[in-house]
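dumping this here before i forget
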Amino acid sequence: MADLLTPDWPAPVRVRALQTLRTGGCSPAPWSSFNLGDHVGDDQARVLANRASLRKYLPSEPLWMKQVHGIAAIDVGNSPRSMEADAAFTRRTDTVCAVMTADCLPVLFCDRAGTVVAAAHAGWRGLVAGVLEATIKNMAVPPEEVLAWLGPAIGPQCFEVGAEVRAAFVAADPEADRAFLPSASGKWLADIYALARRRLRRSGVERIYGGGACTVSEHERFFSYRRDGITGRMATLIWLATDGV
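structure:
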């Protein structure tokens, strides 16, 4: 049985969302155990078995995108079953948007009326390039009507980056400097949650929830590429339910 979390946010009743954990699947080490990524070296039969286990909780098969750390956002109901993108949105019921992560930040979106949902994969490259802003734009609703939930990502005590990463964020927004602290190694510790919240608020989104987990330090719950190198992938999923109850 899959181990799942339900996001804690005041989304409309017809908005459904789930976050998978690393536990509850059938993959062996180093992908143990609920790996959903088919591109990380795990046996494909195991991956398909894990996806089949997850499918029991969903109204349809998710669109598994090929994520490339860009800003492309696709309409799930009108896209091929496999394509390069880092965000997905839909206004169709029982159509699942999904992103996979193992340190990068997954962000879920919906509007207060429950007419559109979206999911974005925000590593630092996508975040600084504008993947969250692109997702909000494609939702085509006033930003003040949007709710966002920040899923599990690498925490601020573990996300060490080079000066070029800090410079990229600060060039776009000087106040982003507040999300970086100098590390003992001479590099910088980045708070990806703070960076995402700032990006969202600058886009007009004020209702922001989640954040605070750390995929690196919470090794029993989450996959982490930075910690383990070869590892699995978790999924963050959202859809609009037909019944609305």
